Amino acid sequence: MQCPCGSSISFQQCCLLLINQDNNAQSPEQLMRSRYSAYATEAADYIYQTYAQASRALQTIADISAWAKETKWLKLTIHAASDHTKHNNQTAVSDGNKEHNLPTVCFSAYYQHQGEYFLMKETSRFVVEKGQWRYLEGEVSNNEALIAPKRNQACFCDSNKKFKQCCGR
User: Fold this and answer.
1) pLDDT at position 86, please?
2) Where is each YchJ-like middle NTF2-like domain found (predicted)?
């Protein structure tokens, strides 16, 4: 199975290694891709564990799990990602409530929820806690309902299949 994050490698060789905690994310983009794959595969524990401590207090595994089960994730597109690694993260500075120069990942995700299709665009911010990348917060700049393609049109997930044979099933 190809990885839900959209990489060209298998799920077992990509995000599953992070979700199973066999490897650690080496960049904000890699963490964001693994979180997307975790939503797609309903790995709520991993999603919860990859929140920054300040954000984790606002979440529950039950809520994350319910959202993941109700939502079918169809496609991820990365638009931009900060060039940060854990070793060059000195530019991420916190002064209480404000975060400056935090690494970001800007992405779009197509998903289906309660029979409707949506496109969400978000810019996510990340921090390093105890040597691990963590998702701090995201700013959703767009979350719009989409008109589904007609049955014989190409699917918007870029599978090269007709909609009726892909996400429209």
Assistant:
1) 54
2) 27-138
Cα separation of 126 and 104, whole Å?
6
- In this prediction, residues 22-28 reach a mean pLDDT of 94
Enumerate residues 6+ apart whose C-beta is below 8 A from 136. Answer: 52, 54, 55, 99, 102, 124, 125, 126, 127
- Backbone φ and ψ of 156, nearest 5°: -75, -5
Quick one: residue 124, left, alpha or beta (phi over 0 = left, psi -120 to 50 = alpha)?
Answer: beta
| pLDDT confidence of residue 167 | 82
Higher pLDDT, 162 or 169: 162
Non-local CB neighbours of 115 within 8 Å, separated by 6+ positions: none
Q: Which domains does the chain have, with CATH numbers?
A: 11-165 (3.10.450.50)
pTM: 0.86
Other residues' Cβ atoms within 10 Å of the Cβ of residue 101: 12
The amino acid at residue 9 is I
- Identify any residues that bridge with 111 across adjacent strands, giving them in sequence order: 73, 118
